[in-house]
Amino acid sequence: MELDERRAKIIEQLAAAQAAHAEYEATTLNGVYDQQWADWYAEYLLAHGWNDLFSQSWAADSLTAALRQADAAHRATAPQQRWHEFYAAQFVPS
User: Fold this and answer.
1) What angle is formed at CA 25 by the lines to CA 66 and CA 39, rounded to 5 degrees?
2) pLDDT digits (tens, 9 = 90+) for 20-40
3) Nearest C-alpha neighbor of 84 from the set 13, 29, 2, 4
4) Which end of the chain is more exposed for a tag (fewer CB within 10 A), N or C?
5) Is the pLDDT of residue 43 over 80?
6) Dihedral angle over CA of 57, 63, 67, 68, nearest 10
7) Residue 23 is part of which domain span?
8) How far is residue 17's CA from residue 68's CA, in Å, rounded to a whole number?
9) pLDDT in tens, 67-92
10) Residues 63, 41: Cα–Cα separation, whole Å
């Protein structure tokens, strides 16, 4: 799989996770912000084929840490960029 294709698939996965997480926050958490969002995303992504996109297998704790790191970098360096695209570039650099 080429880098652009892999990034596009990561963006799709992240967008699907975002939609599912929004539903989770709205229904299960009754609209409360999920402080543990990265844990939730990691579990969701791993259950929905995330590891199929990589040569290494991600464990939930390492993916949680990588998501938090990508979030911090996004907020610090490129908050105007769509987060899905920024994260994809973090996971699959050029």
Assistant:
1) 25
2) 999 999 999 999 999 999 999
3) 13
4) C
5) yes
6) -150
7) 3-91
8) 15
9) 999 999 999 999 999 999 999 999 99
10) 9
